[in-house]
Design goal:
Helices cover 37% and strands 11% of the residues. Strand 10 and strand 11 form a beta hairpin. 39% of the residues are buried. The chain has 13 helices and 15 strands. The radius of gyration is 26 Å and the shape is elongated. It has 424 residues and is an alpha+beta fold. The chain starts with a helix and ends with a helix. Helix 11 packs antiparallel against helix 12. A four-stranded antiparallel β-sheet has the order 6-7-5-12. The chain folds into two domains: 274 residues, DNA primase, PRIM domain, CATH 3.90.920; 133 residues, no CATH class.
Amino acid sequence: MSEIIKFYSRKDIQIEILRLCSNKEIAVKFGDKGFGKRPDILQFESDVKELAKQGATSFHCSEELWKDPLQLKPGMTRGQMDTLRTGFDLILDVDCKFIDYSKIAANIIIEALKFNGIRNISCKFSGGSGVHIAIPFESFPQIVNNIDTRLQFPEIPKAVANYIKSLIKPHLTKEILNLSSLDEIASSLNKQKKDLLENKELNPFKIVDIDPQLISSRHLFRCAYSLNEKTNLVSVPISTEKVKNFKISQAKISNIDKITQFIKREDSQPEEAKQLFIQALDFELRTQPKVEIKKRNYEIPKIAIQEKFFPQCINSLLKGVKDDGRKRTVFILTNFLQHMGWSYEDIQKALLEWNKKNYAPLKDGYIISQIQWAKRQQKKILPPNCDHEAYYKTLGVHCLNCKAKNPVNYVKIRLENEGKKNRG
């Protein structure tokens, strides 16, 4: 019996792989012959051993949880997959050629997640030179921005990945440079130093990154206690407290003793990821590409436009936010009111008054700082377009029979029509 078959014949290994693959699509790799059929599932513990006897070398499973993975097929629409999807785990794939940098990044990411209220965090060695960090679906709120969370894949994981990257960037830069000089890093990666810089400073994500390829529908990751064909090492779970001290030797087949679970669903606290998701989605909205309004299409009025000319969505938001989305609403209203010719003093006064109507008022300082930030910008940007999924609809507001693409365009059209009536 080969070492691989012997390893996958262990009952404790079979139990853990089957547990992790429950309600997930799997794919089995048969060495250099490639992957077997997709979609596939594991039904019994003995399947692991039997597949190993047939030449299976590793087992891979989906981030997404499905009603029946076997109903999946190529070319399915987003709606068809949404119907089958019951949830998803958040998996962050820390990708780097060197495990030392991956460990540094993983440790900082774990601290950032804890800072955002996450306690049920799992971590494992990829089997190569990376690290996988996971948060189970059971830790998620059922609804985010008035939309069923299970339907927001891959949008939520991508937003979280980008938000976490923004949080850890300065810390990761410092830790990497504490470990190696820029010359040493460039030499090890066979790159020019200039290729690692951004605005004359080290961009740590040129060295170690959160792999965006994993955050896509039906993308698979290596199961815990599955082998890596290139290294013959096991994708072994790591205690979140011991990531920096992890040694490659711990992943040798001969050193796999006690089994540790990766993704512990029963340890989740409902909605513990709520604050993380809100912060991540707010960050995404604040960093979206800015769209300049062309003066030939619309000029900022010299006299402030009255609220009676505003679209229904804006007037609804001005009545206060009854659930998540206060910061997004500040972003919408600030940009909209600028284009209505309102002074920054009037915008601040209006938003401070609006804030009192919210289910839980923001700190006045937050609103004031956002208005000051807008005031410093050289170019005014439009509020989000009406069809942007993360805004008006998810905030529970919409306009009836409105054909405008943007709230500002609505006002422009209405004023033009009012002018024609007056002239006629």
